[in-house]
């Protein structure tokens, strides 16, 4: 009887632990934080080119730090200007456009009206990184472009 109770308890604990790990909700994108060279330039760009609303814009001169929060729909972006931040080109003597750093590589958005977005980006004179291509996994079009600090942003057709 003890053995049966022990086996039952062990199965219950194993099962409940397994169920808990599999019953986690899917994480939803909440916000992205981007370190920028010049906060005002980036605020203008993200609001004019991507249509983000500026929620706040704070300056902390005693900490050599500026920060702003932006929002568009369910997407939020935090822009940070740090006096102590350096660019990869400043940190790596032989850095070039082919160099890749460990860490975030790009942020991506799915958009409706892909053609309208491309037309808007062209009119805004964004720096495209390549051309519009077809994503092999989804069969949808995509394109990469860069913000004023060369951060990659990718648009995917919905």
How would you describe the overall organization of this protein?
With 158 residues, the protein is an alpha+beta fold. The protein has four helices and nine strands, in the order αβαβββαβαββββ. The protein has helices spanning 2-22, 39-48, 88-91, 114-123, and strands at 31-35, 53-60, 65-72, 75-82, 106-111, 127-128, 133-134, 141-146, 152-157. Strands 5, 6, 7, 8 and 9 form a five-stranded mixed sheet that branches. Residues 1-10 have low confidence and may be disordered.
Map the helices and strands.
Blueprint: H1 2-22, E1 31-35, H2 39-48, E2 53-60, E3 65-72, E4 75-82, H3 88-91, E5 106-111, H4 114-123, E6 127-128, E7 133-134, E8 141-146, E9 152-157
Parallel strand pairs: 1-4, 5-9
Antiparallel strand pairs: 2-3, 3-4, 6-8, 7-8, 8-9
